[in-house]
Amino acid sequence: MRLTLSQALFASAACSLLLSPSAAGAQASTDDPAWSIEKPRQTRIGPGYSQELIEVKFRNADRTAPGKAGWTSRRSGALPRLDALTAEGGPVLRVTPLFSADVVHDTSDRVDLPALGQWYRMQLKPGQDAAVIIDLLNGMDAVEIAYAAPLPAPPPSAAPAPATAQWASPLFIERQGYALAASSGIDAVHARTVPGGDGTGIRVVDIEYSWNWQHEDLTKLRVPGTWIRQGASISDPFNDNNHGTSVLGEMIADDNGFGVRGLVSGATPHYVNVTSPQTGYNAANAVALAAAKLGPGDVILIEQQFPGPAPCNGYVAPEWIPSIYDAVVSAVRRGIHVVETAGNGNVNLDSGCFGPGFPRGRPDSGAILAGAGGAAATQWCRDAVVPRSRLGFSTHGRRVNLQGWGGCVATTGGRDLYSGGPNAGYTQRFNGTSSAGPIVASAVAAVSGAAKASGKTLTPLQMRSLLVETGTPQVGNNGHIGPLPNLRAALDRLAGMP
Fold this sequence. Notes:
- This protein has helices at 80-86, 101-107, 130-138, 188-191, 242-252, 283-293, 322-332, 432-453, 460-470, 487-495; strands spanning 49-58, 72-73, 77-78, 92-97, 119-124, 143-150, 203-208, 268-273, 275-276, 280-281, 299-302, 306-307, 315-316, 337-341, 368-373, 402-405, 409-412, 418-419, 425-430.
- It is of the alpha/beta class.
- It has 2 domains: 5-150, no CATH class; 173-495, CATH 3.40.50.200.
- Helix 6 packs parallel to helix 7.
- The longest helix has 22 residues, at 432-453.
- The radius of gyration is 23 Å and the shape is globular.
- The chain starts with 48 loop residues before the first strand and ends with a helix.
């Protein structure tokens, strides 16, 4: 059965979109205003979002759930209009929880956390108009928000350069300028001299597609338990294991006398796949799975990006997606530091496209958004960009907190720097907000490790403020991406904190 607007008796009361605010009045939840979302008037499903899958969040206090007799909520009782969509003859093929059962259980007794158990994924039958169904769902009082599910987007970096094997030496730390002292680097070299400043005692998690855990410089990835599983196996829609390899190389590559050295090589790495043949694409659940394994002071890096709303439809930070926002807030409120790549969309997050404030005027999630700035020029890598100025592709705005190098990053993965076989490839041109994110996340892990070693704990907001206030200022006024972390200055201030 295909629903049309004329068949939708209550469609006139519906307010929806795909991820695009409008002038419609807010329909705020009365039980938890921190997570209320404005429901725009009419759904427009843009590129990068599914025509078959819908993410639905029911209001926190209602505890809406399906049962043998149909859908019910604590406040409204039976929900016949929802039943009509999901019944055997309706347009919805199946409904599944968006977050896995162990994650929901982990957060169910915390009133200060988003109700992850109120998130569902609906798969439509073939031939259905997803926009109409979304509008119908958003017309229901029990529904906090419904929208087209995001599709996997390319990771926020360019494709790896071809293999050249032009350098004979297997030691490349001299090309890791981002580890050097301010003003060009974050001064991880100094941080390593401070107890805990190499990330010791801190767990760092990379959330994205796939990795080469057999790489010679990433031996810690082969430790049992490093992979926090979403599904039984990993799938990569872009068929490339270099991206995650490069990200973790920046952070935790071995200190072994060859290859590169991770900025926080003492940290304990983990990785979570956002896609699998069993679960499909589910970045929100990946964040929640990671948070369930971590504790205060640990670090999550989300290496994903998503199209914003028209006309701001370039790539933006992950928390633009409401389900990911809830997962991020849940992690941050438990004391976990979350870093998100701002995205390679050249989008201004201060634009009215995003409501009164990114994302959609919702409260600050507490995460750190990382933009891409110019690298220090070297004889082997010149991008003709002023160091610490915004690279033209980087999404920007007041919500972007810190920057990292968006080019000329030497790390594991790729082949343009050295090609010593399938498990011994290195690049000196990793780029995008993809390369910036691990630099920022490493700064967080270094400070968190030093704090832990000295018996201190920084909240995520304290961490963000410390790194912003002590960072090396951005150059230029072509879009705000914040300062480059300066670990020497940050650790000096940390030492004076009670």
